[in-house]
Design goal:
This protein has 291 residues and is an alpha/beta fold. It folds into two domains: 3-86, Winged helix-like DNA-binding domain superfamily/Winged helix DNA-binding domain (Arc Repressor Mutant, subunit A, Orthogonal Bundle), CATH 1.10.10; 93-270, D-Maltodextrin-Binding Protein, domain 2. Helix content is 39%, strand content 23%. The chain has nine helices and eleven strands. The chain has helices spanning 3-15, 18-25, 29-43, 59-86, 107-116, 129-137, 200-212, 226-234, 279-287, and strands spanning 48-50, 55-57, 91-97, 120-126, 143-147, 156-170, 190-193, 218-222, 240-243, 254-258, 265-272. Strands 3, 4, 5, 6, 9, 10 and 11 form a seven-stranded mixed beta sheet that branches. A two-stranded antiparallel sheet has the order 1-2. Strand 1 and strand 2 (55-57) form a beta hairpin. Helix 1 (3-15) packs across helix 2 and helix 1 (3-15) packs across helix 4 (59-86).
Length: 291
């Protein structure tokens, strides 16, 4: 049975008049009669008793009415589901993020994504910036939030935050009492950093800031995440340059001090593969303000 035939059957079953049913379906009467006859022939039963005066449902026709309505309702639901998926209103959005994005002041942006994508199942996975690029390349995630420059190989990027760097020092460090720190004052300190292969943007920004201050940093200790970097600072293993907003993490034993002059800024971007056809991704990018 075809959906079109079932619609014709239900229309005739409700109108019990070929002329009115054809008008309701916006077709002429002969095609309606032909389709009903074909449906009866396919089922091997008479669905209607008809003569020149009246049209009545047979017991077989009455039995088919409820099933036909159920099938038509299910077909309509399926159509709506498909249309919503095509428009990005349902589905799954796989998101990668570096831990620092929780502390860079874009909570309203994330809240908007959650609110506007209410019908979408979002799956968040913490991973480094380089790992996100690889995951996008291998279709493991749809969208990433990473500390990267504006352009990552074949990936597209849209800046969502720009945060000034601060010096992270142990609370008992001799410089901890200063209101601001000249990066040059850290020249002899051991530095804690995320390895370049995991976070090239952060690693290069730290190195460039130190080189601009006139020294090459002594990278002594390495961690996978910024919170781990700051935790090592709290243990007295060294110093670090981190986004100033990380102060909201309030890790005991660490002080964050603004840098003198015009400090460098860590740039955080939404990144995605431009070849990803996901309607959900397209909708999320629109919410992020991507032109």
């Amino acid at each position: 049975m075809e959906i079109r035939e079932l619609r014709m059957f239900v229309a005739l079953a409700e109108e019990l008049h070929f002329g009115r049913a054809a008008e309701r379906l916006r077709i002429s009467q002969p095609p309606l009669t032909k389709h009903i006859q074909q449906l009866e022939a396919r089922l091997g039963v008479m669905l209607f008793d008809r003569n020149k005066r009246s049209v009545r449902l047979t017991p077989a026709g009455a039995a088919l009415v409820q099933e036909a309505r159920r099938i038509l309702n299910q077909a309509e639901v399926a159509i709506q589901v498909v249309r919503r998926a095509e428009q990005g209103e349902t589905g799954t959005l796989r998101i990668g993020f570096v831990a620092a994005v929780v502390y860079i002041g874009i909570e309203k942006l994330f809240a908007r994504l959650h609110r506007e994508l209410a019908g979408v199942d979002t799956v968040w996975e913490e991973m480094g910036s380089s790992e996100q690029v690889e995951a996008l390349r291998n279709d493991r995630i749809d969208l990433g939030f990473a500390q990267v420059p504006m352009g990552v190989g074949e990936m597209s990027a849209h800046q969502v935050a720009r945060v000034p760097l601060a010096a992270a020092l142990p609370a008992d460090h001799p410089l901890a009492g200063r209101s601001r720190i000249d990066p040059a004052a850290l020249a002899d300190e051991p530095f804690i950093v995320i390895p370049r292969e995991s976070a090239p943007g952060y690693f290069d920004l730290t190195a460039a800031t130190c080189l601009q201050a006139g020294f090459s940093p002594n990278f002594r200790h390495y961690a996978k995440h910024l919170l781990s970097v700051v935790s090592l600072v709290a243990l007295g293993r060294g110093v670090a340059l981190v986004p100033r907003t990380l102060a909201v993490a309030a890790i005991p034993g660490v002080v964050l001090k603004p840098l003198t002059g015009a400090p460098a800024h860590a740039q955080y971007s939404a990144i995605w593969h431009p070849g990803n056809p996901s309607p959900v991704l397209a909708r999320a990018l629109k919410l992020l303000g991507v032109p």
